[in-house]
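quick one before i forget lol
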Amino acid sequence: MAFPARIETDRLILRRWREDDHAALAAIWADSGVWAALRPSTPYDPAAATPDTLGEQLRHWAAHGFGVFALEERNAGREVIGWAGPWHPSIVPALEHEVEIGWTLRQPYWGRGLATEAAVASAEATFEHLGLDAVISLIRPENARSIAVAQRLGMHVREAVTHAELGTELLVHTVPRTAWERRGTRG
C-alpha cells in the first residue's frame, strides 16, 4: 500500500511538498522562533536554509516514497503554516536507517495543539504504511514545546546524539509500535 501524499485531520491538511512551495518554506524559515528551535547555534540566515530544505524534502519523497508534509489549516486558505511527517534523519548519520517523525510550525500557530495533531497523523500513517517497529523524534533538550508533543505521542528518551552539521545535542525520543497501538487514538 502506497504512503499517502495527502492526509486530512480535523483542522489540518498534510500534503506532499511541491516545486512551487519555495515561498511557503521561506516564510517558515523566516520565523525567528523556528530558527531558534532548529538552528540556535548558527547565524540567522533563512534565505540559505530554504532551497536546501525544499530540495531535500522533494528528493526524500522521490527516493523513499514518503516524507515530510507541508501543513495547511483546513478552511483557512492555502497558506503553509509548517511541516510534519516522517523522514530518514540525515542530520545524524548513525540514525539514517530509522524513521523520524518531525514537526515545525510558525509561531502564530503555536499553542493550539496543531503540532500534536500533525504529529499524530504522521505517526499513524507511518506505522500503517511503512510497517516499522518504532519511530523516533530528534529534539533539542531545550525545546520544551516539542518535548511535550513527543510525550503526547507516548515517546520516551532513548539516548542523546549530536547533530552532524550543527554540533548540537539532540535527544532521541522513541515510541515502539506496540506502545503506539496501545495508546489508541488519544492525542
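fyi The longest helix spans residues 46-64.
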